[in-house]
Specification:
alpha+beta; 5 helices; elongated
């Protein structure tokens, strides 16, 4: 019996340890990247002004809502309907879509108070919340 060990008798521990260490390092690295992105997101959120300050940015304006058909796929009915309608609130806009399958994006738009009065109050559309710009 010889005391010399053959190379083939040694367990292949180096390959499994390398794989194990690689996966551990990969996990640690992904956790570090996730933490960094969360910190960056928190910093960006803290740096941007809140929605409560939106009225300060538009002191003499009123927010109304319109559907967006530009830069997306929309049917002809949506394009015609959304071009000429303006809504007082999101709720009114969602209930007055062009057709039942309409999924066009809803965007806020700031208009001057004098324009708001002319469109909504003078025409009596303040009760319904919908203005057809063709009839103003």
């Amino acid at each position: 019996m010889s005391t010399v060990e053959n190379e083939s008798d040694k367990p292949a521990a180096t390959a499994s340890q390398t794989r194990r260490h690689f996966l551990q390092r990969l996990t640690i690295g992904s956790v570090a990247v996730s933490a960094t992105s969360l910190v960056a997101t928190a910093a960006i959120t803290a740096a941007t002004p809140s929605v409560a300050n939106a009225s300060l940015r538009h002191p003499d304006s009123v927010k109304v809502f319109r559907f967006r058909t530009r830069n997306n796929v929309s049917c002809r009915a949506c394009k015609l309907h959304h071009r000429y309608t303006m809504f007082r609130s999101r709720k009114v806009a969602k209930s007055n879509r062009a057709h039942p399958g309409c999924d066009c994006a809803l965007e806020p738009q700031w208009i001057k108070r004098s324009t708001f009065r002319r469109l909504f109050k003078a025409t009596g559309a303040i009760e319904t919340g919908v203005v057809d710009l063709r009839k103003v």
